[in-house]
Design goal:
The chain is of the alpha+beta class and 427 residues long. It is built from 17 helices and 10 strands. It has a single domain, classed as Cytochrome P450 (Cytochrome p450, Orthogonal Bundle). The strands form 3 sheets. A 5-stranded mixed beta sheet has the order 1-2-3-8-5. It has a 3-stranded antiparallel beta sheet with strand order 4-10-9. The protein has a two-stranded antiparallel sheet with strand order 6-7. Helix 8 packs across helix 9 and helix 8 packs antiparallel against helix 12. Belongs to the cytochrome P450 family. This is Cytochrome P450.
C-alpha cells in the first residue's frame, strides 16, 4: 500500500463522473433525522449515492442492503486497502476525516488480504480467550463504582458520568492496564472522539500508553489480551502490537458507549417500549437489538476501494474510488422490511440480520461483538437496578446528537432519579 501525501487541497476533486451533483456528507439532518436524509438519497440517487466529504473529496455512499452485502462479500474486488484511494495526492495531513478513513498502517484495521488475515490469526484468539463471566464481573464492579460517583445527587449526565467511561475502563482491564491508567485512557479517547485541538496529542498519548503496555507485558506476562497476543507464535513488531491494541480499544470504546447511551435513551423516551419493559414483554436485550437496527452507533463505515473499474447498483465505479458503507441506511432499506416502516426488529428478517457490525471478512470479529454486548447489557442492567426510577431531566427535543454523519450518539443525557446510597454506604 502506498500513498503520495500532499498538503495541497483537492481543487480538482469533483463528484464521480457521469452522475448528478454529489450530496454533502454533512449538515444538521444527520443529527436530527438521518433516516429522512437516507430516504431522500434513495429517491434521488438509488442504492449507491455520490457524496462529497469535507474538503471537496468525492466518494460513494452505499445505502442499499443488497449492495453492501455485495461489496463486503467480495474482498478481492473491494478490499479494505486504504492505499488504493485515488485521492491520496490531494489529501492534506491535517484533513479532519483521516481518523475515519485511515492511513496505510500495519494493523488489523488498515491491512488487507493475507496481511489482514495474519493480524486476525493473532488478535481474534486473544479476544476469544476472555472469560464472559470475567467481563461481566469487571463490568458490574466498574458500573457500581461509576454510579457511586453520582447516585447520591439525584441527577447526572449519563453520557459523561457512565456511558463513555464504562466501556474503556472494562477494555483497559481486559487488555492488561491497571485501573488508574484506564482512567487516563478514557480521557485520551474522549479527546480523540471529540476531534478538537487536543485530538492529535491524544493520539500520541494513546500510542504511548500501548507501547508501555507491550513492554510491561513482555517483561511480565499476565492473563490478559496483550500477553496472549505476545505469546502468539508468528512474529510481529512492537509497532504492530501497539497499533492492534489501539484498534481493539478505540473501536470498542465509542461504539459501545453509544450503544449504551442510545439504548437508555430509547427506554426513557419511547413510552410504548418502557411500558412493554414494565410488563415484562420487552427486555434490555430487546432495546439493544432495536438500537442496532434503528439507531446504530456506526452509521457510516469507511471504506472499501475497488481494485478495478466495476459497476455497483446502477453506478460505474472507478478503481480506487472510496466506497462508504451506509450501515444505518441499509438497515432501513425498504427492500428488507417485512413489516411496516418502524416495525420492531422481531418483525424483520431475523433480529441478527442487521449490519451494525458490518459484514464479511472485515466485519467486527465475533469475540469483539460478544465483549461489547456483555459490557453494554451488564452496564444497563446495573444502572436500572441501582436507579429504578430513572427519567429524563430535559424534554426529549433538547437532546443533542453528536455532529457526525459517521457516528450516532447523544452528546449528553441528563437524567434525574431518587437519590440512593453508594455501595459503600450499603455495606
Amino acid at each position: 500500500m502506498t500513498r503520495s501525501p500532499s498538503a495541497e487541497p483537492a481543487p480538482d476533486a469533483a463528484p464521480p463522473s457521469g452522475c448528478p451533483a454529489a450530496v454533502p456528507l454533512s449538515g444538521p439532518g444527520f443529527q436530527t433525522d438521518p433516516q429522512a436524509v437516507y430516504r431522500a438519497m434513495r429517491r434521488e440517487h438509488g442504492s449507491v449515492v455520490p457524496v462529497e466529504l469535507p474538503g471537496g473529496f468525492p466518494a460513494w455512499l452505499v445505502v442499499g442492503y443488497r449492495e453492501i452485502h455485495q461489496v463486503t462479500s467480495d474482498p478481492e474486488l473491494f478490499p479494505r486497502d486504504v492505499g488504493l484511494w485515488n485521492q491520496w495526492p490531494h489529501v492534506p495531513d491535517d484533513w479532519p476525516l483521516l481518523p475515519m478513513v485511515g492511513r496505510p498502517l500495519p494493523s488489523i484495521y488498515f491491512t488487507a488480504g493475507e496481511e489482514h488475515r495474519r493480524h486476525v490469526r493473532m488478535v481474534v484468539p486473544a479476544l476469544e480467550a476472555v472469560d464472559p463471566f470475567e467481563i461481566r464481573g469487571h463490568c458490574e464492579q466498574l458500573a457500581d463504582r461509576l454510579i457511586d460517583g453520582f447516585c447520591a445527587r439525584g441527577d447526572a449526565d449519563l453520557v459523561a458520568a457512565f456511558c463513555e467511561p464504562l466501556p474503556v475502563l472494562v477494555l483497559a482491564r481486559l487488555v492488561g492496564f491497571p485501573d488508574d491508567e484506564g482512567a487516563d485512557i478514557a480521557r485520551v479517547l474522549k479527546d480523540l472522539a471529540d476531534g478538537g485541538p487536543e485530538a492529535q496529542s491524544a493520539h500520541q498519548r494513546f500510542g504511548a500508553h500501548m507501547a508501555r503496555l507491550v513492554a510491561a507485558r513482555r517483561a511480565e506476562p499476565g492473563d490478559d489480551v496483550t500477553s496472549r497476543m505476545l505469546a502468539f507464535p508468528e512474529e510481529f513488531t512492537d509497532e504492530e502490537y501497539m497499533l492492534d491494541l489501539m484498534a481493539i480499544t478505540a473501536a470498542g470504546h465509542l461504539t459501545t458507549a453509544d450503544w449504551i447511551g442510545n439504548s437508555v435513551r430509547l427506554m426513557l423516551t419511547e413510552s410504548d417500549f418502557a411500558d412493554s419493559m414494565a410488563r415484562g414483554r420487552r427486555s434490555v436485550a430487546d432495546a439493544m437489538t432495536e438500537v442496532l437496527w434503528e439507531d446504530g452507533p456506526t452509521q457510516i463505515l469507511a471504506g472499501r476501494w475497488p481494485v478495478r473499474d466495476t459497476r455497483l447498483g446502477e453506478r460505474r465505479i472507478k478503481a480506487g474510488d472510496l466506497l462508504l458503507l451506509g450501515l444505518g441506511a441499509a438497515n432501513t432499506d425498504p427492500l428488507i422490511r417485512q413489516g411496516a416502516p418502524g416495525a420492531p426488529a422481531s418483525e424483520r428478517g431475523g433480529s441478527g440480520a442487521h449490519l451494525a457490525f458490518s459484514h464479511g471478512e472485515y466485519r467486527c470479529p465475533f469475540p469483539a461483538q460478544e465483549i461489547a454486548e456483555i459490557i453494554a447489557r451488564t452496564g444497563i442492567e446495573v444502572l436500572l437496578d441501582r436507579l429504578p426510577d430513572l427519567e429524563l431531566a430535559v424534554p426529549e427535543g433538547e437532546l443533542v446528537r453528536r455532529p457526525s454523519a459517521f457516528l450516532r450518539g447523544t452528546t449528553a443525557l441528563p437524567v434525574r432519579f431518587t437519590p440512593v446510597p453508594t455501595t459503600g454506604d450499603l455495606s
